[in-house]
Amino acid sequence: MNMHKLWMMSFAIILCSCTGHDMYYDINNQKLISCNKKKFRMLEISGKSDQVSLFWSDTVQEAPKVLNLNHIPKEYEIRTGGLKRNRPFLLMPNESYLIIKSGSGESSHRIRIWKNSKGSVCKTTHPKCGMKSFDEE
Fold it and tell me: What is the pTM of this model?
């Protein structure tokens, strides 16, 4: 195999490995955004006081690629500990949250956000696309 083909294959593998479930949080617009064509079909959100899983349940409308976590669409089924949740899920002020996007057999992608006393996200580990998954260990 010549060097050019080897280099092109290596570049393609690296490029593909970066696109999985990559996402970021846009602080200016207060939205979670997918960095590729993969929609938010399944998310896990955990803070100190609460942990939920969001599952897109609509079979007609596509899941979004941009999500306002303060106004989670009604098409999401919200679960806590595997059980459907009857009360709404709200991100509380002065708390940080770990957000995990996963599914389709690919590696999950993690980011962390911090909310201020007014309830707005004021800090994130991922302010743009192309950053490695957040690892807390």
Answer: 0.82
